[in-house]
Design a protein that fits this description.
This protein is of the alpha/beta class. It is built from 27 helices and 16 strands. Helix 5 packs parallel to helix 7 (139-154), helix 12 (246-259) packs parallel to helix 14 and helix 23 crosses helix 24 (617-630).
C-alpha cells in the first residue's frame, strides 16, 4: 500500500503550456466577468434550456470572483432565483449552492425548497435524473444533487439520513474496478464522472485520510485513492481532451479543493488548468465561460500558510492545514490557500506564504540552506510556527535548540511565555493565555516572529476523532495566528514566483572608505550614519537606518546619509561622521579610553543620538552612567517642549501619538520627554529612553514600550535634522 501511495503522489508528469502569471489570471477573470454580465437579461436571468440553473451557475461564478452582493447584476440574479424554479435537478442543486454561499441564513427558506425537491427527486437506487419524473438516472445530475444537499446541510436544514445513506451506497456500488465512474451505472469510466464520484463520496462523509486516534496511524480510504489514481492516469494520457472541456476542469478543481490536493499525479492542477484557460480564445458558450471563471477564481487565493516539509515526520496530521485555512477563510472573510513546501531554496513555494508551520515527533534538524531561507523570511516579517505534537517533547526541544543556536546566538536568545499584550492575542478573537499556551522567541529586541504552541491545535483541525472537543479553541487560535501573520507579511498568490532576498551581515566599512564614494546630500552634506559598536546588543533594530533613509530620501528638505557604518568607540572613524547613533538593551561596558575618544568626538562638533532598545531599563541606567563619564561637567536634562527639536521640521505636538499598547498602558497618549546635554546652545547629546527604532526596523511588538512608525519617524527626523544644523 505504501508503495502504491508513493507512486500516486510522487509520480511527476510534465505538461508544457505557455506559462501564465497571477496578473494574467486576473485579466482573464475580468474579461470573463464582462462577457457573462453582457449576456444577462433585464430580469436577472441568463438564457438556457436550464434558465434557473444557468442563472445560478453564472451567479456562483460572479460571487466567487469577488462581485459585490450589492451589485445590480447580483441583486437581480438573486431576485430571479428566489421567485423562479424549473423543477430540474441541476437547477435546484445550484440554487442551493449559490444562495448558501451568499447568505445561508437570509435565504434559508428558498434553500429548503431546493432541498425538498432534491429529496423527493432521488431514485430508489440512490441517484438522480434530470427531473423528479425521470425514469433514468446519471452521475452528472447525481453529483450536483449531492452538492445541493451538502449546501442545505451547511445552511442548517435537517437532511434525511436515508437520503445520504442511499446516495453513498449508490456511489460505492457503481465505482468501476479501475477506480473510475461512468456516466451511469457501471459504464466505461469518464474523467469528469470520476471527478464527480470522488467529490460526491467526499461530500457524503468519506475522507481520504482519517485518524480515530490523534496520535495513532493514518487510515487511507482505498476507494478514494483508486479514484485519484485513475484521474492521475488520465491526466497523463488524455490531457488535451480533458482541458478542452471546461466542465471537466471545474470537476477536477472540486476534487482537488475538497481533498486538499496541490498536485494530482505530480501535476499542479491549478497551473495546468489556468494555462489552458488563459491561453484559450475559444471559450464561447455561456456555461464554459462560467466554468472557466469558477476554476480561475476559486483556485486563485493567496497562500496564507506553508507546511514545512522538513527531513523528518513532517506530515503526521495530513489535513490539518487544509482545514485550518478553510475555517479561517470563512471566519476572516478572506480567500486563503495553503501549500506544502521544503525550504531549501530562496524561491521555494513557501516564500509566497505569510506563515510557515512545522511540527513532528522526531528529533528536529535543519541545514544551512533552510537557515538562510528562514532568516530571509523572518527578516521580511514572516511568521514561523512550531507545535508540540502528542505531548512528545523530542521534536519541540530539538526545535528550540536549533533556533537558539542559529538565530543571533551572540544576543543570548531565549523562548519566553507570550504575554497578554502580544498583538496575536487580539488579532481576531480575544484570547486568554490558557487558550494558546505559547512561547515567543526573544533575542534582545530582535523582531523575529517565531512562536511555539505548547497546546496542540493540529489534531483538532485535522478532524482526529478524539480531539474534537478541543476544536472551538483550536479554531480561535488558528484564526488569530493567520490574521496576525497576514498583518506582518503579505500572502502571495500561487502562480507568480517569489524569491526571498539573501540576508547577509552588512559589510562593515570605515568612515574613510565611505567618504571616498563622494556621495551627495540633499542639504549639501557628504555624511555617514555611524552606529556605535559595544557589548550591549548594539545591533538592536538592524533595519532602522534602512527604513528611516528610505522615507527621508523622498523629501529633499530632509537630511540624507550615504550609508550606515559600524564604528568602534576607540576608533578614529568616529571623526568622519557628524552623527553617532547608540542603541542597545544591555550594559555597554565602555572603557576609559572609549570615554576619552567620545569626549573628543563631541568637542570636535560631533553629535550623539541615543535610544534604548525596548525602552530597556538596564541600558537606560548604564547609558546615563556612561554619559557622566564622557562629559563629567555636563548634565543630562529634559529638553523643553518649546525647543526646535520638538517643532521642526515636524511639529510633534500636532502629530497624534503612535505607540504600542504597552506604552499606552504605562504612559497614556502623551509623548515622553527627550533628554539632552547642551553646549554652546546646541544639543550635543539627545537621548530617548523610549524606544523609537524597533518599529522602524521590523515592527515593535505590542508587549514592549515603544513609539510606532509615525511618531518614531517624526522624532528621529527632528533629532537628525537639528544635529546637522550649523
Amino acid at each position: 500500500m505504501k508503495k502504491l501511495i508513493c507512486s500516486f503522489f510522487l509520480n511527476m508528469s510534465i505538461m508544457l503550456h505557455a506559462a501564465v502569471s497571477d496578473a494574467d489570471v486576473l485579466k482573464k477573470i475580468v474579461n470573463l466577468k464582462i462577457d457573462i454580465l453582457k449576456s444577462q437579461n433585464t430580469n436577472g436571468s441568463w438564457n438556457s434550456s436550464y434558465k434557473v440553473g444557468m442563472t445560478a451557475l453564472c451567479l456562483l461564478a460572479l460571487i466567487h470572483s469577488d462581485s459585490d452582493i450589492k451589485d445590480e447584476a447580483v441583486v437581480d440574479a438573486i431576485h430571479y432565483l428566489l421567485n423562479n424554479s424549473d423543477k430540474k435537478t441541476y437547477s435546484e442543486a445550484l440554487v442551493a449552492v449559490v444562495l448558501e454561499t451568499i447568505n445561508a441564513k437570509k435565504y434559508k427558506m428558498r434553500i429548503n425548497q431546493s432541498y425538498s425537491f432534491l429529496e423527493a427527486a432521488q431514485k430508489k437506487n440512490g441517484a438522480w435524473g434530470y427531473t423528479i419524473n425521470s425514469i433514468a438516472s446519471d452521475n452528472s445530475n447525481s453529483q450536483f444533487a449531492v452538492m445541493g444537499i451538502d449546501a442545505a446541510r451547511r445552511a442548517g436544514i435537517p437532511v434525511n439520513k436515508a437520503v445520504l445513506d442511499n446516495a453513498k451506497t449508490y456511489w460505492k456500488n457503481f465505482q468501476n474496478n479501475d477506480g473510475s465512474w461512468g456516466y451511469s451505472g457501471q459504464n466505461r469510466g469518464m474523467f469528469s464522472m470520476t471527478c464527480a464520484g470522488v467529490a460526491s463520496v467526499y461530500l457524503l462523509g468519506e475522507r481520504l485520510y482519517s485518524k480515530p486516534n490523534a496520535c495513532g496511524d493514518t487510515v487511507i480510504n482505498k476507494r478514494i485513492l483508486k479514484g485519484l489514481e485513475n484521474l492521475a492516469k488520465n491526466l497523463k494520457g488524455k490531457a488535451a481532451r480533458i482541458q478542452g472541456r471546461l466542465y471537466s476542469l471545474y470537476a477536477l478543481e472540486r476534487v482537488a479543493i475538497y481533498l486538499g490536493l496541490k498536485e494530482i499525479g505530480g501535476v499542479d492542477w491549478y497551473r495546468w488548468g489556468a494555462e489552458h484557460i488563459v491561453n484559450n480564445d475559444k471559450i464561447h458558450t455561456l456555461s464554459d465561460k462560467a466554468f472557466a471563471l469558477l476554476f480561475l477564481a476559486k483556485g486563485s487565493a493567496p497562500i496564507a500558510v506553508a507546511k514545512w516539509q522538513w527531513k523528518g515526520d513532517w506530515d503526521n496530521q495530513k489535513e490539518d492545514v487544509k482545514f485550518w485555512t478553510q475555517y479561517s477563510s470563512e471566519s476572516l472573510g478572506k480567500k486563503l490557500d495553503w501549500l506544502v513546501s521544503p525550504i531549501t531554496k530562496l524561491d521555494a513555494p513557501a516564500a509566497k506564504a505569510s506563515l510557515i508551520f512545522v511540527n513532528g515527533r522526531e528529533r528536529f534538524r535543519m541545514n544551512d540552506y533552510e537557515e538562510e531561507f528562514l532568516k530571509s523570511f523572518l527578516e521580511e516579517g514572516g511568521t514561523l510556527l512550531a507545535e508540540v505534537s502528542c505531548q512528545d517533547r523530542t521534536f519541540i526541544n530539538s526545535f528550540k535548540r536549533e533556533m537558539l543556536k542559529r538565530f543571533d546566538p551572540e544576543l543570548k536568545p531565549k523562548f519566553v511565555p507570550i504575554s497578554d499584550a502580544h498583538p496575536l492575542m487580539q488579532s481576531k478573537h480575544k484570547l486568554k493565555l490558557k487558550d494558546i499556551k505559547a512561547l515567543e522567541f526573544r533575542a534582545g529586541c530582535k523582531q523575529y516572529n517565531i512562536i511555539i504552541l505548547m497546546a496542540n491545535i493540529s489534531n483538532a483541525l485535522n478532524g482526529d476523532v478524539d480531539a474534537q472537543m478541543d476544536l472551538k479553541r483550536a479554531r480561535k487560535v488558528s484564526d488569530n495566528l493567520i490574521a496576525w501573520s497576514l498583518q506582518n507579511r503579505r500572502a502571495t498568490k500561487k502562480l507568480d514566483k517569489v524569491e526571498l532576498k539573501i540576508t547577509k551581515t552588512k559589510k562593515i566599512l570605515s568612515a574613510d572608505q565611505l567618504k571616498h564614494k563622494a556621495a551627495k546630500s540633499t542639504i549639501g552634506i557628504e555624511q555617514a550614519f555611524a552606529r556605535l559598536r559595544h557589548n550591549g546588543n548594539w545591533l538592536s533594530s538592524p533595519n532602522y537606518f534602512i527604513t528611516l533613509q528610505s522615507i527621508m530620501k523622498k523629501n529633499s528638505k530632509l537630511p540624507y546619509y550615504d550609508a550606515e557604518v559600524y564604528v568602534q568607540p576607540s576608533s578614529n572613524d568616529l571623526f568622519q561622521s557628524a552623527i553617532l547613533f547608540i542603541t542597545g538593551s544591555q550594559k555597554t561596558n565602555l572603557k576609559a579610553e572609549d570615554h576619552i575618544n567620545l569626549q573628543t568626538y563631541i568637542q570636535n562638533h560631533g553629535r550623539i543620538f541615543i535610544t534604548a532598545a525596548c525602552s530597556n531599563k538596564e541600558f537606560d541606567k548604564d547609558i546615563k552612567i556612561q554619559l557622566k563619564r564622557i562629559l563629567p561637567n555636563d548634565k543630562l536634562i529634559k529638553i523643553p517642549r518649546t525647543d526646535k527639536l520638538y517643532n521642526y521640521p515636524i511639529k510633534i505636538s500636532k502629530l497624534p501619538l503612535s505607540a504600542t499598547r504597552a506604552y499606552i498602558k504605562k504612559y497614556g497618549k502623551r509623548y515622553q520627554d527627550l533628554l539632552g546635554i547642551r553646549r554652546n546652545n546646541k544639543w550635543v547629546v539627545v537621548y530617548s529612553p523610549i524606544d523609537l527604532s524597533s518599529d522602524l526596523s521590523n515592527g515593535a511588538q505590542e508587549s514592549i514600550v515603544a513609539y510606532k512608525e509615525k511618531s518614531a519617524f517624526a522624532l528621529s527626523v527632528n533629532i537628525l535634522y537639528n544635529a546637522l544644523l550649523p
